[in-house]
Every structure is written in structure tokens, then in C-alpha cells.
Amino acid sequence: VIVVPVNLGPRSYRVLVGAGTLAQVGPELARLGAGRRAALVSDAVVGAAHGEPVRASLAGAGFEVAEVRVPEGEAAKTLATAERVWDAYLGHGLDRTSTVVALGGGAVGDLAGFTAATYMRGIGVIQVPTTLLAQVDASIGGKTAIDHPRAKNLIGAFHQPRAVVLDTQVLRTLPERQYRSGLAEVIKHGIVLDADYFALLEGSLGGLRARDGETLTRVIAGSCRLKAQVVEQDERESELRHVLNYGHTVGHAVEAATGFARFTHGEAVSLGIAAEAHLARRLGLAGPDTVARQVRLLEAVGLPVRGLGASPEAVLEALGRDKKARDGRVPFVLAPEIGRFRLVFDVPRAAVLETLADLG
Ligand SMILES: NC(=O)c1ccc[n+]([C@@H]2O[C@H](COP(=O)([O-])OP(=O)(O)OC[C@H]3O[C@@H](n4cnc5c(N)ncnc54)[C@H](O)[C@@H]3O)[C@@H](O)[C@H]2O)c1
Ligand SMILES: [Zn+2]
């Protein structure tokens, strides 16, 4: 088991990464000195596939656990579900010493985190993410939210977990497309934050494809360490944390232009990374080798790097509607080299359009 610390003063916590760590949830909670009551929040699929070891470990450590079921996927992140979940906490007698255990993908983590942040003005939450995306991205950093009918993640709170427990074995049941999508975020971390880590990924292709336990532990722990470093320097997402938006500026626009149906988030991010890599080259910021390595690694794990699924004009138009846009222009995170990033504010529209046209 690899332990990755997240140092945030009084809100510090640790991330446990390894095979079979679901059995550590109970001991970890006991170690934190939490009250005896806990709520285990998960959806039907994850609860059935991976709930048992968590239940057993909590019971074994002396906790009294209420199970709370929420819908699968984004449907969990509604006010109606949150209300049901608060009711369940109250019904089970959860108090300020109690803990919410979030077992599931990013959606369950966001909903469980949000309900924990708001119940009695905030009780503890342990994140036990079961998708690769949630393990390397959503579970660390304390962002929690539900959706508003008109905007995703609009209603939320910063609420750091008290611990994060990552079990590489739960990824075995993850559908291939979802697994690959999580790899887009992993690759993103390497490109903008750490050249050695990027090289580790290039050298781990076989293990990654096979979802080999040791490879996954090393790769996931590395990704968590990078995400933790960013969160430690910018807990409330003012400046530095934007670096994690690499590939997401174009990626979000592609998702929007294709009606959020054609690509998974990770696939859109992969296209976004390819686009932003080519854009950096077009602007004279990055050399051809830097671009080629990014595209090659994405392709090698089976992620798309061309074919936007929409016209370049439609993607450009969606870019202009980005929350960060000013006068129709968005700031871009670009990678001049593997392992480095630069925020660029004045990218000419023509350069973006030509890049998108090349990719389409
Ligand atoms: N808080 C953050 O910082 C942050 C960051 C990124 C994304 N998010 C949020 O995360 C959500 C997306 O998360 P996601 O990609 O994990 O998908 P998800 O949570 O929507 O889960 C997708 C599906 O995968 C299933 N599933 C989960 N784990 C499984 C497993 N081990 N085996 C088989 N099936 C499994 C679930 O039942 C669900 O149906 C979005 O709502 C997004 O806004 C939050
Ligand atoms: Zn993302």
C-alpha cells in the first residue's frame, strides 16, 4: 500500500493506494477517532459489486453502518436525492461525530461529499472512489456538488475528505470505455506537471492495458501525488489549479458541441489534449516531438485524437460560451514541453479554428 499525504494544515488527510484496500476503510475510520455511526452511500451496481468488503471492514472496526442507495451516475447529483440522503442520515441518528463513506464513481462522491458538507454544517466524509476518473481526480481536493437543472455542479461546497481509500482491484469491474476515459486524466497530469511521470506511463502500456495491480498502484499513486501537490498549493482553485484544465477547454467545447452524448468526458478530454497540443505547436510554443509524444500515448491506450464529431465552427462557438471566456476568448493552458505548462490568454481565434479544422 502506498500512502500519499495531502497536506492542508488542519484539513490534512492521507490517500491509501493498493490492492485490497477496501478492507482498510474501517481501521482508517477508527484511526481518525470518528464516532460510532456511519452512512455508506453507493449506487446499486457498485454496492452489489464492492460493498461487502467495506461493510465487513466497518463492522469489524465497531461501526454501526446505515446503507444509503442513490441512483447510478449523474442522476445521483440532484437536490431531490440530496434531500433523501439527508433524511436517511437523520433517520439513522447521524450526529456531528458521524462519518459518510462514499463508495462509487465521481457522481456518488460528489453527492455524498455535498450532503456531508451540509448536514449539521459539515460532518466527516471518507472517499472510496471506484472509477479510475474518481480515483485520480474527483476524490482528492474537496470539491463537492450537485447539479442545477440549468448547470452542472452549480450548487456545491469545498469539503475536504478525512481520508481517501483507493483499491486498484475495484477497477477490474469497470467497463473498458470508462477505464480508458480515466486514463485521459492520468495522461493529462503527466503532460502538464511531471515529465518523469509521463515517461513512466509510456513505459507502462502493457500493465495499463492489462490493469495489472502493481502497475495501477504505481500509476494511480503517482497521479494522486500530482493532484495533491496542486491542491496543496491552491486549495480553493484560484490560479494554479487551472493547470488541471489542460485538454478541458477544447474538451468541454467538444462535449457541448456534440450534445454530451457522443463522447465520454475522458474521450473529449483526449481530443482536447490533442487539439491543445497542436495549438501550442501552431503558436510556436511547443516543438513537434512534444506534440507527437502526447498524441502517441493517448492513441496507445485507445483514446481518440482526431474526429471532433462536430464542425470546427460549432466547437469554436461552444468555446466562446466557456465560463472562463472574456469577449468570446478563453484562456488556454498549454504545454510548451512535457512536464511544463503555461497559461496563454490571447490565442487568436484563427489559430484555434485552423487547429480544430485539422483535427476534424
Ligand atoms: N469533485 C471533483 O473534483 C470532480 C472532478 C471530476 C469529475 N467530477 C464528477 O464526477 C462525475 C463523473 O464520475 P465518473 O466518471 O466516476 O462516473 P459516474 O460516477 O457517473 O459513474 C458512472 C457509472 O459507473 C459505475 N461504476 C462505478 N464504479 C464501478 C466499478 N468499479 N465497476 C463497474 N461499474 C462502476 C456506476 O454505477 C455508474 O453507473 C461527474 O458528475 C463529474 O462532475 C467531480
Ligand atoms: Zn476531467
Overview of this structure, please?
By secondary structure, the protein is α/β, with parallel strands linked by helices. 47% of the residues lie in helices and 17% in strands. The chain is built from 14 helices and 11 strands. The longest helix has 21 residues, at 213-233. The N and C termini lie far apart (43 Å). The model has no long low-confidence stretch (mean pLDDT 96). The structure holds nicotinamide-adenine-dinucleotide and zinc ion. Nicotinamide-adenine-dinucleotide (NAD) binds next to helix 2, helix 4 and helix 5.
Task: Summarize this entry quickly.
With 360 residues, this protein is α/β, with parallel strands linked by helices. It has helices at residues 25-31, 44-60, 79-91, 106-118, 132-138, 176-193, 195-202, 205-209, 213-233, 248-257, 265-282, 288-300, 312-320, 349-359, and strands spanning 2-6, 13-18, 37-42, 64-69, 99-104, 124-129, 143-148, 151-158, 163-167, 332-334, 342-344. The chain is globular and about 60 Å long.
The average pLDDT score comes to: 96
Uncertain runs? none
Q: How is the biggest beta sheet arranged?
A: 7 strands, mixed
* SSE class: alpha/beta
Order of helices and strands: EEHEHEHEHEHEEEHHHHHHHHEEH
As laid out across the biggest beta sheet, the strand order is 1-2-9-6-5-3-4
Total beta strands: 11
Query: Ligands in the structure?
Result: nicotinamide-adenine-dinucleotide, zinc ion
Q: Please tell me what the overall shape is.
A: globular
Straight-line distance between termini: 43 Å
Percent range of helical residues: 40-55%
Strand percentage? 15-25%
Gyration radius, in Å: 20 Å
**Count the helices. How many?**
14
